[in-house]
Write a structure and sequence with these properties.
Elements lengths: L1 H15 L1 H12 L13 H6 L5 H22 L1 H34 L1
């Protein structure tokens, strides 16, 4: 009897939140058993992201960490770490170039 009540509750819940339940079960069933799925991105690269202007930092850090965790089970730690470093250097280089361009413009105005 308990199984029938539980089954009815699950069906009712699934009817209300079918998409959320489907996504949860998909993540649960496809979860890898390796320990690599819970690894954080490289710390030094994360510290370098703190030099990016705060206006862009939160979104950039969140997006990179999310993508890192998505790629990790498929490609492994070493490849994903290299990918993360490439993204951080590219983002940092972009903002550094913008900063230097702005400083050069100010220098031309002062001179």
């Amino acid at each position: 009897m308990t199984g029938i009540v539980f089954g009815a509750a699950v069906v009712l819940f699934a009817g209300l939140y079918l998409d959320e339940l489907r996504n949860f079960l998909r993540r649960l069933l496809t979860r890898s058993t390796t320990t690599e799925t819970a690894c954080p991105p490289p710390r030094t690269a994360q510290y370098l992201l703190f030099l990016v202007p705060p206006k862009y930092r939160d979104n950039l850090v969140g997006d990179l960490e999310e993508e890192y965790q998505t790629l990790l089970p498929t490609y492994g730690r070493q490849w994903t770490d290299r990918w993360y470093w490439w993204q951080v250097v590219a983002a940092f280089g972009h903002f550094l170039l913008r900063l230097l361009t702005g400083l050069a413009a100010v220098w031309r105005l002062i001179r």
